[in-house]
Amino acid sequence: MSDPDGTQAIRLRTFLILAIAWFAGAYFAGHYVARMPFGFVVVSVLIFAIPIALSGLYSSAIHQTHVLSRYKEGGRAYKLLGGRVIRAVLWMVFALAASLFMLLQFSGYSDLEWVALLLAAPVYWLSYLVSRKFWSVELKKPSMVTEHAIVWARVWCPLISAAPP
What pTM was computed for the model? Predict the structure, then answer.
C-alpha cells in the first residue's frame, strides 16, 4: 500500500498520541484508584470503555450490514437480525464491564507490566496494518477491509505480545 499523500503517517501519529494519552490516564487511574473518590472510578471506567465500545460497535455495524444485505427488507429474518440497538447496548455493557476489570487490574501492575502495556499500542497498530494490507487484496468493500483488519488485529496483537522472544 503506497501512501503518496502521507495520510498513513498522520493516522499513525494520531493513533500514538491517543494511545499515549490513554496510557497516561490508565497509569494515573491505576495508581490512584484506591485513594480517589467513587466519581473518579466511574469517570475512569467510562473513559476506558470508549475504545472498546467504538471498536466493537464499528465491527458489529459493518458485520450486521453485510449479513442483512442477504435478506429481503420486509422479511422475518431481516427483522430478527436487524436489532442494532440490542447489539449497541450489549457492546456498551461489555465495554463498561471490561473497563472496570481493567481498572482493578491496573492497580496491581508492576513496572514491567506497564512497559508491556505501553508497547501493546505499536504492536496493535502493526497488526492492524498487516491485516489491512492482507484484506485489502482479498475484499472488495473498504468498510469490510477495515472491519476485518480490526477483528484480526484484536486476535493477533495479544498473540504477538505473549509470544516468547
Answer: 0.71
